[in-house]
């Protein structure tokens, strides 16, 4: 009996050691976040072992587990009509509020979900719930894009899917079918979906044949660059829950169908060293020492290698492709962007991506709202359903929807 108690105490100590992380005291729901992160890490480690044993791709296994867990949840949608459709070969889920008396046209949001271009789905309860609440709160038609994911396809197919679906929806006859006001359409997304939303918005702004364009873009903690993995937020939050730096780098490698052996070189910015000629013309567009306020720069120093590995860019040219890294777009493209909302979280490696994009857009003459949350973390906005319900999720979601309501 005594041995059993000793074993139990040892297991409890090991569990506490695995779960505990030293998080900032200002962060909300700290212990709940530790438990969520411990679950993520356990799932990822198990799935990577399955991948290592060549039983299946780890991302396929993770998505299978997400879908299995998701079946345990049910989200009510009594007041919203939810239908699945295909827009120019791309699956979408459409959320339509009921028609009100004397109402002619509704506003609309094209939403692109996150998940590292690889995980989650427009059909999971987390995004189903978010889009349903958006449709109800805004009395708007919400189109959630179900782009194909890694490893089924890699860049640029996710971008092409999001672009095709959006352009299809922007056709006058399609908007009329859904009773949408052509002058009141936003494009939005979170994390990797924010990346796709920004890239699609840039592409639409340059399409001379397009007659209807988005009025707004709203980007939620977007990932916008793979040029510098040592911005202050990457250094400050390198081990932060949900999205540590090495996980983000691996998402990029998966997106580009690259080799994991390059991860360390990317981490120390060997791919954008001073002797890598392909990167020289982009350096001025991502100089965080001038784009970030001092409150974000703190005492962090730039990591710029004198000599690096030009072969990385030769092997993965998409690292400098603006369709994948919208923050590197030229000023002439940024000047064409619509009124913009960018939500960032202090405890997020991607914080500076959003802040730098906001500054570049402002410098280009675009009206920008930067909505920064000191106590929140990456991905928090979709975590509003038990058991992954966070006050940070409700706080950020309400602020995001409020901005859309006031500006769309």
UniProtKB/TrEMBL annotation:
Subcellular location: Cell membrane; Microsome
Any GO molecular function: acetylalkylglycerol acetylhydrolase activity
Domain Alpha/beta hydrolase fold-3: 109-266, 321-381
Residues of the active site: 191, 348, 378
EC number: 3.1.1.71
Keyword presence, Protein transport: no
Chemical reaction(s) catalysed: a 1-O-alkyl-2-acetyl-sn-glycerol + H2O = a 1-O-alkyl-sn-glycerol + acetate + H(+); a cholesterol ester + H2O = cholesterol + a fatty acid + H(+); 1-O-hexadecyl-2-acetyl-sn-glycerol + H2O = 1-O-hexadecyl-sn-glycerol + acetate + H(+); cholesteryl (9Z-octadecenoate) + H2O = cholesterol + (9Z)-octadecenoate + H(+)
KW Cytoplasm (keyword) present: no
GO cellular component, one term: plasma membrane
One biological process term in Gene Ontology: lipid catabolic process
Protein family per UniProt: Belongs to the 'GDXG' lipolytic enzyme family.
Protein name in UniProt: Neutral cholesterol ester hydrolase 1
Organism field: Corythaixoides concolor (Grey go-away-bird)
